[in-house]
Amino acid sequence: MEAVVEATDLERRYGDTVALAGASLTVGRGEVFGLIGPNGAGKTTLVRALTGTTEPDGGSARVLGEAPADVDRDRLGVLPQDFSPPDRLTARELISYYAGLYDDARDPETVLADVGLADADETWYENLSGGQQRRACVGSILVNDPDVLFLDEPTTGIDPAGRRTIWSLVEELAAGGTTVVLTTHDMAEAEHLADRVGLLADGRIVAQGSPDELVAVHGGASRLTIETTTDVDAFDDLEFPVERAESRRRSTNTDAVVIRDVTPAEIGPVVDYLEARDLEYTGLNWTEPDLEDVYLELADDAERERTARVTQRANAEAANAGETR
């Protein structure tokens, strides 16, 4: 794989806050690499280090074979989270303005069509919807036809149809050889777009691989959710693991149980089991693990490790303080 974007043991501190604690990744030409992770994990700091807008305290970064700050800006496209163009420019004027910054820019009309703004080209930026504004921002960083794209939460606030437009555009760019690094909290977006995904937690990439690889290793088992108020003990002689379903509103959901490791072919026998024992239920839902399961598992593990380190450090400081008295 020809490395286009490389980070090796990147470190960055802001006072006592550790934003990056040895983050490493390699992205090849034409590859879409998705960065996922909780808020505060260091995703934006990592992107800033790779684009030359933040100087790391340790480690190294290379983009297109050079230090990020030395890369020809004509070859890069960077969309930050907080990009805010002038309100009183129309979508067309905005795209045309950025096109004017480059000697060999793309046709603004084509860019407007690519991001789905051809029908809103004469609308001031401030009067565009939130999703349209984000599309305009995406368009403004495509006018130079970059070799490498860094997209920090590219589809935030965009409606589902608009999101699909941006996804298709990213796929077309990658197919043409553009290397894309994107951050996202949308697991469906990462699973759809990314060739590989890296989960950043506590300043480190704790796992990376294709979505399928990550799901296979970290996603857990399939789940058959049964909507029932029947107690879990009623399933004692079922051959599959059974537990009370978790609810987003509380630790357990009294209206459902989850049976794990059930294949589609085994759903019928489970139903026979329920009916043979007159166990009442109102619905069944079988699901395979996905990237969201990976995210929840790994982020939770990383948070437990972070908490353990903080607790260990606090205990050590307390012990040292006691010895000096």
TrEMBL record:
Pfam families, per database record: ABC_tran (PF00005)
Keywords: ATP-binding, Nucleotide-binding, Transport
GO molecular function, one term: ATP hydrolysis activity
SUPFAM superfamilies attached to this UniProt entry: P-loop containing nucleoside triphosphate hydrolases (SSF52540)
Domain ABC transporter: 5-227
Family membership: Belongs to the ABC transporter superfamily.
PANTHER family: ABC TRANSPORTER ATP-BINDING PROTEIN (PTHR42711), ABC TRANSPORTER ATP-BINDING PROTEIN NATA (PTHR42711:SF5)
Full protein name: ABC transporter
Organism this protein belongs to: Halobiforma nitratireducens JCM 10879
Lineage: Archaea, Methanobacteriati, Methanobacteriota, Stenosarchaea group, Halobacteria
